[in-house]
Design brief:
Largest sheet: 6 strands, antiparallel
Number of domains: 3
Strand order of the largest sheet: 3-2-1-6-5-4
CATH class of the largest domain: Alpha Beta
Distance between the termini: 42 Å
Number of helices: 9
CATH topology of the largest domain: Heat Shock Protein 90
CATH architecture of the largest domain: 2-Layer Sandwich
Strand content: 15-25%
Shape: elongated
């Protein structure tokens, strides 16, 4: 792929991935924010129920579990804690190490006291992080006292962290998949553009080359006539003939290109009528049969009568003449050319031209309908062929919504087959 097209493809990829990334981030951020706000609202509602003392809609009071409350005086001294639906007033029993395996109660009590002290030094409502746990705190001012309600929101924090990790993981995987598909799609999108660009370049080069020869002939002949003013029309006939030959060749090329362009315009309205294709084919055969006779070719004709097509007479005649002329042109001397027009079912008819001869190499079969393509350039120069005949046929067949294909065995036989709707 050429550099300009690579740049265009890369720009397309960057634009596509940027838009996709923005959309994904916006979607993930919206989901994350909505989910977080929902959980925070639910936690506040639970705190509201706890403050009102409504246990029917909130979690049960558990010691060192989901929530607890503490009552403090104006100086921040803990007066009591509500644990397991019991109010603990004497904190000496919690702050003194216990025996018989109950020392864990001492450690846990200190943990909760530290939480209360953190809450006392903070705002009325806040979130406290302590020892890998997260607590939501609500302060309720009372007469000469303060009540602190604590709710363990560690599960909420862990859920949001897991959600964020999931978003990053799925986002990364999605981005990679989108990148792969975007690359494939970009390459597929650019392929016909590159093909069209290459075809256009090839057309310009080939058209320039074809025009160069007759122009050189005209210019050379004109230069000779200018350098020999004593030449008469009779004595300078060779140079005038050169000018006429070059002009005729250029005219033929230009007319062929105009016809090809007209046929390739699929949107151009075309008058369609019932055309007797059998009669048109016999007309083409009668015009070209003389060329077959010159090469002593065995000309086999298998034409069914009264086969009608819905289309333009000129298009159908172009198809018949061009393929038949091509078959005779590239058939070997004293070879065989077979032309056939047969009905295929009720809706289709098949036109076939086969000729013995050198054949077409397999690697060239896909190019035989390209503009200016000529498999044997030496023979093409002898016949004055531009390599536009089969391009015209292809365009005409497309106008009639038909199909054309070619098959060839090198050194044996070449067959062109056209299927048209009746």
């Amino acid at each position: 792929m050429q550099a300009p097209f690579k740049k265009a493809r890369n720009k397309f990829l960057i634009l596509n991935l940027s838009i996709t990334t923005v959309i994904m981030l916006a979607a993930f951020f919206s989901i994350y924010t909505i989910f977080e706000l929902t959980l925070q609202r639910e936690n506040r509602e639970i705190l509201d129920h706890l403050i009102l003392g409504d246990d029917s809609n909130g979690p049960q009071h558990l010691l060192f579990g989901q929530h607890f409350s503490a009552l403090l005086d104006e100086d921040g001294n803990i007066l009591s804690m509500s644990m397991m639906n019991e109010e603990v007033v004497d904190f000496n029993q919690l702050l003194t190490p216990l025996e018989n395996g109950w020392d864990w109660l001492f450690r846990e009590a200190n943990y909760y006291i530290e939480l209360v002290q953190e809450a006392w030094s903070g705002p009325m409502e806040e979130t406290i992080h302590l020892d890998n746990s997260t607590w939501m705190v609500r302060t309720v001012p009372l007469e000469n006292q303060y009540r602190f309600e604590f709710l363990d929101t560690t599960a909420t924090t862990n859920t949001m962290a897991s959600l964020l990790s999931t978003f990053f993981f799925t986002g990364g995987i999605s981005f990679f998949i989108i990148f792969i598909f975007s690359t494939l799609y970009a390459n597929r999108t650019m392929k016909p553009i590159v093909t069209m660009w290459d075809a256009q370049k090839s057309f310009i080069i080939n058209a320039s080359h074809e025009l160069k020869t007759p122009l050189s002939t005209i210019i050379s002949s004109s230069d000779v006539l200018q350098m020999t003013p004593e030449e008469t029309i009779g004595s300078g006939k060779m140079w005038f003939d050169g000018i006429n030959l070059g002009t005729a060749r250029m005219t033929k090329l230009i007319n062929s290109l105009l016809t090809l362009t007209k046929f390739e315009e699929l949107n151009v309205p075309m008058e369609k009528s019932d055309v007797n294709a059998s009669v048109l084919l016999w007309q083409a055969i009668n015009l070209i049969e003389v060329h077959a006779a010159k090469k002593k070719i065995q000309f086999i004709k298998e034409v069914d009568d009264n086969i009608y097509f819905k289309g333009g007479e000129q298009l159908i005649l172009t198809i018949f003449e061009a393929i038949l002329e091509n078959g005779i042109k590239y058939a070997n001397t004293e070879g065989t050319v077979t032309v056939s027009l047969k009905q295929q079912g009720k809706q289709h008819a098949v036109y076939t031209v086969s000729n013995t001869g050198p054949g077409i190499p397999k690697e060239h079969l896909t190019r035989v309908f390209d503009r200016f393509y000529r498999g044997d350039t030496s023979r093409a120069s002898e016949t004055g062929d531009f390599g536009l005949g089969l391009s015209l046929v292809k365009a005409a067949v497309n106008q009639l919504n038909g199909k054309i294909q070619v098959a060839s065995e090198v050194g044996k036989i070449t067959t062109f087959t056209v299927v048209l709707k009746k």
